[in-house]
């Protein structure tokens, strides 16, 4: 396996706040990463999941090394990716630790199942992906986790939850397509609607 780490040499001309401001424009699909097994579980809301390769099926996610889920992922070597539906905003909020919720308490109020890895997978997610850790790359405050996909639970649902400019937004293809047809606009793929 090849790994090339360059010594970066060009002085950056950007402050952290400026970079953060630029990244607010990047629309992110919202997922919950689940970690651990049985009662020793936690999870976190992320937007940093992306597909790495289809053959073999693999994905990446960047996780803050201070997050409570990271030691669980490192210890068990497995994790779940639960891609949230538009009506699962409350689950996204629970998994940011809102209201001081920690560990297994974040999981109450939703239904969970397991596959080969044993990590909790959200019943009713747009898709739930069971993963084994293939590689981790620690960089700056975060760790990039490469997950080998073990199993996928797909649903028929499509309306997705996204995060954009510091807010949760729903992306509902069916409803927006119908609305676009009503106003006879030329074709557009996706329309973003604010939270209800
Ligand atoms: C919309 C949204 C996206 C987030 N994406 C990430 C992410 O990609 N990686 C990350 O480390 N933290 C991300 N966070 C922050 C984590 O959800 C949060 O730090 C974590 O749940 C707190 O973990 P802990 O209380 O378990 O330590 C995101 C938060 C929000 C609200």
From TrEMBL:
Pfam families reported in the protein's UniProt record: Flavin_Reduct (PF01613)
Flavin reductase like domain span: 23-170
Molecular-function GO terms, alphabetical: FMN binding; riboflavin reductase (NADPH) activity
Entry keywords, A to Z: Oxidoreductase
Domain of life, per lineage: Bacteria
Similarity field: Belongs to the non-flavoprotein flavin reductase family.
Protein's name in the database: Flavin reductase (DIM6/NTAB) family NADH-FMN oxidoreductase RutF
């Amino acid at each position: 396996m090849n790994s090339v780490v360059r010594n970066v040499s060009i002085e950056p001309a950007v402050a952290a706040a400026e970079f953060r401001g630029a990244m607010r424009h990047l629309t992110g699909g919202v997922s919950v990463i689940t970690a651990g097994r049985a009662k020793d579980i936690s999870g976190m809301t992320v937007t940093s999941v992306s597909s790495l390769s289809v053959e073999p099926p693999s994905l990446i996610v960047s996780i803050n090394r201070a997050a409570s889920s990271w030691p669980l992922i490192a210890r068990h070597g497995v994790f779940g990716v639960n891609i949230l539906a538009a009506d699962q905003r409350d689950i996204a909020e629970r998994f940011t630790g809102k209201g001081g919720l920690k560990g297994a308490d974040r999981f109450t109020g939703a239904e969970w199942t397991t596959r080969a890895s044993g990590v909790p997978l959200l019943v009713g997610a747009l898709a739930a992906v069971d993963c084994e850790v293939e590689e981790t790359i620690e960089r700056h405050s975060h760790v990039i986790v490469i997950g080998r996909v073990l199993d996928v639970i797909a649903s028929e649902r499509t309306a997705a939850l996204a995060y954009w400019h510091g807010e949760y937004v729903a992306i509902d293809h069916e409803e927006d397509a119908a609305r676009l047809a009503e106003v006879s606009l030329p074709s557009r793929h996706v329309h973003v609607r604010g939270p209800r």
